Input
Amino acid sequence: MNNQEYQGVFVFAEQVDGNIAGVTYELLGKGSELAATLNTEVTAVVLGSGIEGRANSLAQYGADRVIVADDPVLATYMTEPYVKVLTDIIRQNKPEIVLYGATAIGRDLAPRVSARVHTGLTADCTKLEIQEETGNLMMTRPAFGGNIMATILCPDHRPQMATVRPGVMMRMDPKAGAACKQEVYEPVNLAASKNVDILEIVKKVRKKMDIMDAKVLVAGGRGMGCKENFKLIEALAEALGGAVAASRAVVDAGWQEKEVQVGQTGKTVRPNLYLACGISGAIQHLAGMEESDLIIAINKDESAPIFEVADYGIVGDCCKVIPSLIQMLKELK
Amino acid sequence: MKIIVCIKQVPDTTEVKLNPETGTLIREGVSSIINPDDKAGLEAALRLKDACGASVTALSMGPLQADVALREALAMGADDAVLISDRAFGGADTWATSSTIASAIRKIGGYDLIITGRQAIDGDTAQVGPQIAEHLGLPNVSYAEALEIEGDTVIVKRQFEDRYHMIQVKMPCLITALAELNEPRYMTPGGIADAYRNKEITMLTRADLDVEDQNIGLKGSPTRVFKSFTKAVKGKGTVVNLEGSEAAAWLVERMKEKFIL
Output
């Protein structure tokens, strides 16, 4: 394979119900950095139906070019039509790098594309950089449940492909009024590639703010003792104007919904403040929150690993500290 | 109906600890288990066996010790078990692994449904299932929270972040299972005795598989591990022993310093 034939950074711009997924903007931010190093362009590829007009928001977050594939079959994600269109676009354009969100869509789409175009794929990357000597993409990811990190290369196949979890990369400040080149990809006879039927789509009602968008997160763990005590977490979150998050143990115990779970099998968050209450800090939990700007931990057990990543720690009883803290915060207002 | 379930033997990563002195993994004493998503996939297959008399083949790729995981699958109720094992397959990334497993599945043949776990807890990639489907040219549905058979189709409750899709797919096809799918059964004493005394595990080696050398093992892997390392430990912060209002006052001061308040 002649690697030199492959040029440019592509970002799969995931959309659901016509709305571009947040991780897309994060990938464009990182994609722009990589493209600058490689002296090339970033292209966003968006598949959907009736999605024209999305190009500008993609340009504002760093896309130099947008390729749009607009077809009724692409309205809702289905594996095969998406794989077919994206594979065609990759074969025609020969990008050197393709980035995807490590989402329920990206983690289904990217593996099949990699198998079809015969190239490597590195999952859930937390760091992407260009190797100076070779220009290859260095893809760093956690392995063994976050216990070790591995840097992966794809030296002899192109494109080099990676998925990145939402919340890991930083989006750039939007450039107001930015515009970019737009190209249209016309799928041919796409209906023939449809090999499943979607019988029903059921959306979960989201009662609360997405924890990935919260500036302040108050997270509770099993150390809170019981579901009843978790009301303290809710009250503290309210007093701080933040949202409630939880460890896996709490979600498994049914005290909180899965949508607020932080960690390897939950969400990756980086709020301004992460206040961990009664969370011991298993490596799988730390993997989802250690990039937070400020980490405060309250835990009875002074040997809890959460104190290894906390900027400030209180060795004490959450059920005594939190009510005092809420009281004091109320007095401040 | 014939179901092939792919299972991986993995170290229980929740037990893996780091040696703080050397920063290396302490693997001694860490037990090996059937990967949780795969075990849910196996349970789903066994329930279909109970309900409609499907035959269930457990398939694993790995070192000879993976025999233990396959015996467990047999003891849970799988009808037969196949182990793909050869040094030639070593060092494989997800591309080469899926290509190897796909060729084994082709050799076994006669299947209606292939079930894999969504992802393994040691690698967390979620890639091998969809890649096997691609190599076999089968439709796949990932992230199954529930599944049922209807005629020659499978109806899958397919999980997304904020919704689920009910997807109908014609067999043969490949489904990737989530651990949430079910609560796997335990092995029975009779099942264990049977698995070790009366059942054979079929071995497939390099010579048994019709797959090109350039599509297996390290040589067939597009990706390479350049280096692995433990994460740089962030400098430890300030930890104090305080209770109640003293703790609260101290925290409020710190949050003021950091402009949170």
Q: What stands out?
A: The longest helix of chain B spans residues 36-52.
